[in-house]
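Appendix B. Worked example

We walk through a single record from start to finish. Start with the input: the chain for AEC family transporter, Rhizobium mayense, length 320.
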Amino acid sequence: MADIVGLLLPFFGLIVIGYIAARITKQPAEALGWLNTFIIYAALPALFFKLVSQTPIEQLTRVDFIATDLAATYLIFLLLFLIGCFLRRNSLADSTIQAFAGAYGNIGYMGPGLALLALGERAAVPVALIVCFENALHFIVAPGLMAVERGDKRSPWRLAADIVRKVLLHPFILSTALGFTAAAFSIGQPIAFQRFVDYLAQAAAPCALFAMGVTLALRPLKRIPTEIGYIVPVKLILHPLVVYVVLQAVGGFDPIWIESAVLLAALPTATNVFVIGQQYGVWQERASATILITTACSVVTVSLVLYLIKSGALPVQLFL
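Next comes the structure step. The output line below is what the pipeline stores for this chain.
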C-alpha cells in the first residue's frame, strides 16, 4: 500500500497544488488559456509521438483491442443514455451529456502520466491507442447526437465536414499518426529532435495535472445533482469492471494492455464533458459538479484499482 501512496501522492498532489494556487491567486479563467494550449498542442502530442514512434508496428495495429475497448466504453455510454432518456425522461441533449459523464474519463490529462508511472513503458502503446481512438469517437458522437436534438444549427454536410476536420486535425490524432508513420517506416530521428520531444513530453503530466486542479477550483460546487447518485459509481466502478470483463472475455491481450485499459477506465469524468455541455448550453453546472465529485472520489477508487493491479489480485485469466 505504501507503493500505491507513493504513486498517487505526487499525482494527485499536483492537482491539489493547482487547486490551491487558483483559490489563492484568484486568477480569471482566461489566465489558464495558454497553459492549456501548451498542454494540448505541444506537451501531450510530443508524449504520444514519442510513445508510438518507438513501438514495433505490429503492436500498433491491434484493431481487436481498440474495438473491444471502445465497445466496453460505449456499453456504459448506452446504459446511461437509456437511463436518462427513458427512466428520467430527460431530453436527448441532457441524456447525451450524462452518458458522456459516465463514459468519458480524463484519459488525456491523467491517463498517460499515471499509467506510465504505475505500469511502466509497456503501457505506452495501449494508452496511446485508447486516448486517440476514444477521443476520436467522442468527437464524432457528441455533435452527431446534438444535431439529432437540433442543438446544432449546422447543415448535415457542414456538420460532417466539421467533425472530420476536428478529428483529423486534433493534435492527439495528428501526433499519433506521425508516430505511427515513423514506426511503420522505421524513420530515424536525429538526437537533437529526440531530446526536444523528450523535453516537451516530460512537461505533459505535471502541467496537465496542475491545469486540472486550477480548472476544478474555477468551477465551485454549487449543488449536487440527483444524477450524481448513479453516475459516480458507474464511472468509477462499473466502467473499469465492464472494460476488464469484456477484454477478458474476448481474450488474447497482454495483461499489461488489460491493466492499462482498466486503469484508464477508472479515471474520473473528463473536463471535456463540461466543454461539450458549455458548447451546446446543456447540463453545464451539473457536468462541472460531476467532474469535481468524481475527481475527489477517484482518490479512493483509483487507489483500489492500482492496489488490485500491483498486488496481483486482479486475475490475469478470467475466462478459460
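Two observations about the output. The mean pLDDT is 91. The chain is about 75% helix and 0% strand.
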